[in-house]
Amino acid sequence: MVDDVVIELRDVAKSYSLESHPWRRLWQQLSGRVDPGRQHHALHDIDLRIRRGEVVGVVGRNGAGKSTLLQLVCGVLQPSRGERVVRGRVAALLELGAGFNPELTGRENVRLNGPLLGLSSAEVERRMEAIIEFAGIPEYIDQPVRSYSSGMFMRLAFSMATSMDPDILVVDEALSVGDGAFARKSYERIMELKEKGTTILFCSHSMFQVESLCTRAIWIEDGKIRFDGPAHQATVEYSEWLARLEHGHGELPAQAQRFESPSAAITRVTVRPPSDGVAFRNRIDTLAIEIEFRSDPAVACPTLGVVINGADGRAVTSAGNWVDGAPLQRDAAGTAHAVLEFPALPLLKGRYTVSVFVLCERAIHVYAAAEHAAAVEVVQDHLEQGVVSLPRRWLMGEPA
Asked: Measured between alpha carbons, how far is 373 from 251 in angstroms, rounded to an integer?
């Protein structure tokens, strides 16, 4: 329903002038005329709708436009183009304590900033002790803020910003405030607001936090939304893209790259689908790779190698029939069929491809290849991170 939409951005863009001369910048602001060639476009054509009670993660690299988007939602910035609609009281954890006066005491700063967050003077006084208690600095609350450590400063700012029972909470990398104990308290405070039905926009570089807190996530790159969907899928898309970028790989080929020779040719590579869908469940389903190839009966029986590649093109694991002591069997025409199984598939969530190689009997010379010949998608129900779930066991009890 439209009434449930509390944040709506329609064709929103944000640009900044790159003019270095202050008088020219002033003239541009007054005249509204900016040289298009001297602009930084932080956001391009953003269309976004967030419903009441949704918890939406925001991921992307530094400089991608995440903070600009959050500041637009909070009203700190105004769009250069497009329409912004926000319904409800917004609490923003962007630059914690940005409005604090270092010469005033902690208590005075709470009283000064409370009305800026939408609280009346009476509401500020009613919540004062709870704010001080949560921040954990009762003995310092009547001291000037300039005497606070950075941790004390951030804890008071966080406590105040989250005490206003907002309709919308915007969090930009704020869960690392203070020491470990307070970081846990801050996370629990945000979880309480989530359970109350507060709409939350949560920006973080921690994919684990995004997955554990959010049901939906958007990935921003170069000021544009590259993906908007389920949080677990967004983290996969973003993490795989980062891996390809880091290791210099582009997008994986849509079709297999095949090579064959007079000695052998691969005729079929298929992945047997799981019984209940197209995605394999980590540590539950068996991944079965079916392979057929033909070879020259006059040459020695070849060997078969299989490589599973990650989305960045890197080899995640490999298998060879000669390594595993499983000799191939050919018919009189030189045709062979094999099935390689990975029971209780240990791969973690993500997209993978299967490459198959037919090699000489010594597994040195390549007779035929089918690279990225089949695609595999893996899903999981838990928050385990990485590429593979290794066999393990826990031993509990008193130390030896």
From this structure: 15
Counting beta carbons within 10 angstroms of the beta carbon of residue 301, is it exposed (0 to 12), middle (13 to 18) or buried (19 or more)? middle
Q: Output the DSSP codes for 84-143.
A: EEE-S-EEEESSTTTT--TTSBHHHHHHHHTGGGT--HHHHHHHHHHHHHHHT-TTTTTS
Q: What is the pTM of this model?
A: 0.72
Q: Which residues contact 382 (CB under 8 A, 6 or more apart)?
A: none
Give the pair of three-digit tokens for residue 373: 């010949």
Closest CA to 156 of 143, 165, 167: 143
- Reading the chain (400 residues) residue by residue, the pLDDT tens digits are 456 899 999 999 988 766 566 666 666 666 666 665 566 688 989 999 999 999 999 999 988 899 899 989 988 888 888 999 999 888 877 765 567 888 999 999 999 888 877 788 898 999 999 999 998 899 999 999 999 887 788 888 888 888 878 889 888 865 555 566 677 788 788 888 889 999 999 998 888 788 888 999 999 999 999 999 999 889 888 888 887 776 554 444 445 578 889 999 999 999 998 877 778 999 999 999 999 999 999 999 999 999 999 887 788 999 999 999 999 999 999 999 999 999 999 999 998 999 999 999 988 888 999 988 999 999 998 888 889 999 888 988 876 5
- CA atoms of 118 and 169, how far apart (whole Å): 13
123, two tokens: 């509401």
Please give the Cα distance from 111 to 258 (Å, whole number): 70
For residue 343, give every residue at least 6 positions away whose Cβ sits within 8 Å of its Cβ, in sequence order, or none. Answer: 286
Measured CA to CA, the distance from residue 269 to residue 10 in angstroms comes to: 46
Buried b (16+ CB within 10 A) or exposed e, 191-202: eebbeeebbbbb
Tell the residue number behind the tokens 């066991």, with chain if given: 393
Site of tokens 């991921």: 59
Q: Is 334 helix (H, G, I), strand (E, B) or coil?
A: coil
DSSP 8-class letter at 256: -
